[in-house]
Amino acid sequence: FKAYLPAHEIEESRKGKEKEETQLGNGELILVVDDEEAVREITRATLETYGYRVVTAVDGTDAMAQFIERRNEIALVVTDMVMPYMDGAATIRALRKIDPGLGIILVSGLAQNAENASDGQGVAFLPKPYTAHELLQAIRHTLDSAGENRHV
Length: 152
Prior knowledge:
Layout: H1 7-21, E1 29-33, H2 37-49, E2 53-57, H3 60-69, E3 74-80, H4 88-98, E4 103-108, H5 114-117, E5 123-127, H6 132-149
Parallel strand pairs: 1-2, 1-3, 3-4, 4-5
């Protein structure tokens, strides 16, 4: 006797479980830094759907301007590693000089960039590609961790 179950029902139940486990934001302002417009916009739409506010930047230089302008509002930064003008590593160093306790999530498709995340300063690493659920989990974890160390 063999039973065959449709695979999509398993996927649907898994997605339902992920939605239940996903914690919603409380209006925290997230700075998303990525040189790819599609990535910025998808990330913005996802975060806004789950209760976050979002401001975006096209590279590290733009991110610094946005952060300086809204320093007291920005709760966390999600930054790509490889960008023109000012890459993720330089952006992280500059942000840390202004606010050492700021929560930062470094995203990259290159595994060796995870070393830049483990700088002992609370930078989380999220490998590309990632799901919305993985991004939201990383944000919640980083916000909770950074909140303990943040002095604005």
